[in-house]
Design goal:
Layout lengths: L1 E2 L6 E2 L43 E17 L2 H13 L4 H24 L4 E13 L2 E15 L6
């Protein structure tokens, strides 16, 4: 486990940034920043709500988004058509939709990190059919810089 020098949170050994505060792990003991310098925002720092429990928003960086446009292949369409004959989950389309949403989500997190965010609040998805068989999936939210709220000692 890697311990964050900023907030003392124990992170996975493979982590480059603290899942709790976004601090770069293994960084020198210089000024404490709460922004990520590269990569993408940690999934633990993303929420559909407009606040992140245990953290205070110190800077709002604005809207971030990830957009993916996908089409169904002929092979996938034929395979899915065959699946509709037996009913139930059309796994070929389910997998395509899940992969598309995941890609849009990851692009949004990368966009947020490029702006210097360590969290994204108010995350939403939207999908629009651009033309027959071609769909745009949009993941969007508000990029913010947050810091851990110090527990009060009463």
């Amino acid at each position: 486990m890697k311990r964050c020098s900023n907030c003392n949170f124990e992170n996975m050994e493979t982590a480059n940034f603290c899942a709790s505060c976004g601090h770069k792990l293994g960084a020198d003991s210089g000024p404490r920043t709460h922004t990520r310098m590269s990569g993408a925002v940690s999934h633990a720092m993303v929420t559909t709500t407009f606040e992140l429990t245990g953290f205070e928003v110190i800077r709002n960086l604005g809207l971030v988004r990830g957009i993916v446009v996908r089409s169904r292949s002929i092979v996938g369409t034929v395979g899915a058509s065959l699946q509709t004959l037996v009913g139930g989950d059309i796994s070929l389309f389910s997998e395509l939709c899940e992969n598309t949403r995941s890609d849009a989500f990851e692009r949004m997190l990368t966009h947020a990190a490029e702006l210097g965010a360590n969290a994204v609040l108010g995350v939403r998805y939207d999908a629009t059919e651009i033309m027959n068989g071609v769909t745009e999936v949009l993941a969007y939210g508000t990029a913010v810089v947050v810091k851990s709220i110090e527990p009060k000692n009463d």
